[in-house]
Amino acid sequence: MKVALEAETVVDIPMADVETSIPERFEQIAWLYPDRIAIRTRDRLITYEALNNSANRIGRAILDQLGPGSEPIALLFGNGIDLISALLGVLKAGKFFVAIDPSFPTSRLNFILNDTETRLIVTNSENSELSKPFGNSDVARMNLDDFRNRPVDKNLGAVIRPDDIATIVYTSGSTGEPKGVTKTHGYCWERAKFNIKFLSVGATDRLSLLHSISFGSGEINLYASLLCGASLHPFDVKSEGIYRLAQWLKTEIITIFHCSPSVLRELVEFIPEGDPIPTLRLIHLSGSPITRSDFDLYHRHFSPLTSLAFHMGATEAGCIACAVVNHDFSFPAKGTPAGFPPENKKVSLLDEDGREVSPGDVGEIAVKSKYLAQAYWNNPELTRAKFLPDPDGGQERTYLTGDLGQILPDGLLVHLGRKDLMVKIRGYRVEIAEIERRLTQHPAVKDAGVTAWERDNGDKYLAAYIVSRGPNHATIDQLRKFVRDMLPGYMIPSTFMFLDSLPVTNGKLDRKALPQPNDKRPELGTAYAWPTDEIEKSLVSIWEKILDVRPVGIHDDFFDLGGHSLTATQVISQVIKQFQLELPLQSLFQSPTVAEMAAVITQNQAKRASDADLVHMLRELETMTEQEAQQRLDEINSPIAKE
């Protein structure tokens, strides 16, 4: 059977519709497709009509508690139906949401709640305990599970203008604190309209959702699906692992798959060459620049009928440049392709004085449009510095990205790196200054520098360089824990090196002079211990290969050696292959040393052997007479047999 890899009905949205609000557009879709699946997870699904009704109940409950008026509402959920129901309910109530990731440190979430002056956290029973340390005593909690059975409410009918705030998204900040980017309904809706057209989304499409809604990239498939009638399929890579992702894409019949390049690099290990996913018509990569090797992986593992989309974007500006290509695409010799500017944005390259550079020259990428984020929350000075007004007094503004680029003769924008200290780590935007500021708060740290390095496969990782305050410096596991208490996992350096002093040029840290990390085992608080059996030897070999650290001791913590969520999936995948076991990704987080993981494997092997013995015995009993079977059971249960 030939599978059609084009959208059956691409939704065409007139530009005038962008002047409506997100709830108004969603209600139109729910009225058009009431029985169509809106969201499907592993264990739940919800139709458009049911999702609209759920959002109405939540919006009504919020208004009953807080009254009308625009204000921030914090949402504490994992990706799934409850989060999206609450998100729509907040918007229907005429308020705006701040999605907070349960995996983030309490101190970071408290900063966001205090910065936005949030009065209400909406959550569910699964996450209600997590919400207790967040916020002060004046912050109320609302549990969705307390009013699921309320009567269905009609649409709330709140008057929402395009320039009303829809959400605040927090990103890493160069000042050492996260900064909030405010997005209006008009901005979000215009971005959705663009993505629906860019990705050719039709009402019959099935879109993946791997990114957290607390980041700008998480909104791409969220709005592109729910505002055109397609279905959205969340998948939690952290808990399920990449090794399950390939099968999930097939069983869920995903047609549009959105991920970061780093996830694709791991995914293709589970997609045999010559066995592409037949229903996948589009792979969309974002979060960090794609490399030539990324394109080669797409070419080798996916059918020519599956297109590759990529784009360069920013939380403040949405899509800046984009392209949809196939196997015939000619990858540029220098830099990484960002794509072509969308029709409603002008992209230019500026020199240090803010003037456009000559054709073919390198400059800072600037984007001019009326569809940019509104501002930085409570930071007018930064807003004025990054968003330049139209000198002619028009509605268009110019956003300075801080990225360097070059425009080729055919109009393709090529990304050539960052102008400042912002880097992309596993698809997340990271301001290096925020990590350095946290490290220097440790009492044993006199000075600290952080930079990003690139592995052979194109993945970037962070390395921290520490100057100790005295002869007895902090251990790496102590520093890692200190950073982890304040910053999310993707901002924790993979490598720590101790130096007598940091290299300085003209009074500033010379990052280019920082030594590149080697594969030597770091100084840990745990003494090195050799493997004692074949299982531990195999695990040590797996860890050393994936972490590029040698030697690995059996009591070394995986994460103190530089491990993170993606390398954890690689380790578990190799363990499953080598030992023929079915282990959840969480087992590595619960047993993060070789010795502990070896014990888990031994227990699983023993259980598997016991289960096999039981199956053998049951089959043996099936062939016996009743008298022979009873005699065999008596032998098994006798004291002598037990001894």
Defining traits:
20 helices, 6-stranded antiparallel β-sheet, 4-stranded parallel β-sheet, disordered N terminus, alpha/beta, 33% helix, 643 residues, globular
Write the layout of secondary structure elements.
Layout: H1 22-32, E1 37-40, E2 45-47, H2 48-66, E3 72-76, H3 81-92, E4 96-100, H4 106-116, E5 120-123, H5 125-131, E6 140-143, E7 165-171, E8 179-184, H6 185-198, E9 206-209, H7 218-226, E10 231-234, H8 237-240, H9 245-251, E11 256-259, H10 261-267, E12 282-285, H11 292-301, E13 307-314, E14 318-325, E15 336-339, E16 346-350, E17 363-369, E18 375-376, H12 380-386, E19 387-389, E20 397-407, E21 413-418, E22 422-425, E23 428-431, H13 432-439, E24 445-454, E25 460-468, H14 476-484, E26 495-498, E27 504-505, E28 508-509, H15 534-547, H16 565-579, H17 586-590, H18 594-622, H19 626-637, H20 639-642
Parallel strand pairs: 3-4, 3-5, 5-6, 9-10, 11-12, 12-13, 25-26
Antiparallel strand pairs: 1-2, 7-8, 8-18, 13-14, 15-21, 16-17, 17-20, 19-20, 20-21, 22-23, 24-25, 27-28
Helix pairs in contact: 1-2, 2-3, 6-7, 15-16, 15-18
